[in-house]
Amino acid sequence: MSAAENKAVLAHAFAETAKGNGRPFVDMMADDVAWTIIGTTSWSRTYTGKALVVRDLLTPLAANFDGPNIVVAERFVAEDDLVVVEARNLSRTKRGEAYTNRYSWTFRFVDGKVADIMEYADTDLIARLLDPLPDQS
User: Fold this and answer.
1) How many other CB atoms are found less than 10 A from the CB of residue 81?
2) Quick one: which of 3, 81, 115, 128 could link to 110 by a disulfide (CB 3.0–4.6 Å)?
3) What is the pTM for the complete model shown?
4) Is 109 a residue whose pLDDT tops 60?
5) Per-domain residue ranges for the chain?
6) How far apart are the first and last CA of the chain?
C-alpha cells in the first residue's frame, strides 16, 4: 500500500476513536503486531500479538475510564510504510480526573496492516492517573 493509503487507514481509525469506537483501530492491526510504550511506568513495555494487545493493554486501559476511550488525532505524517500520528486523549478516569494525555505514535505498515506501533506519551500522567499494571517480566 502507498503512504497515502496507509494514512487513510489511520485517518478512518482515528475518526472512530474520536467518537469512542475503538473497533477499527483494533481491526487495522496485524495479528502479530508489536506495540511499544516508552518509559519506565508499569505500562511501558512491548505488547506482542493482537490478542495480547487487547488483553494486556487495551482492556486494562479501558477499565480506567468512565466511558469510552476518546482519542482525537491532530496530525498525520506519512512516508513509505510509516505514518506518524499526533493525538490527544479526551477521556475521564473513573475517579473523575481528566486524562489529557498527548501522543506521538509511529505506525509501520506491512501488507496493509499495522505491524509495529511506537508510542510516545506523557509517562508521568500515565503513572499518576492510571492504575498500575502487574509486572509481566
Assistant:
1) 16
2) 115
3) 0.94
4) yes
5) 3-129
6) 36
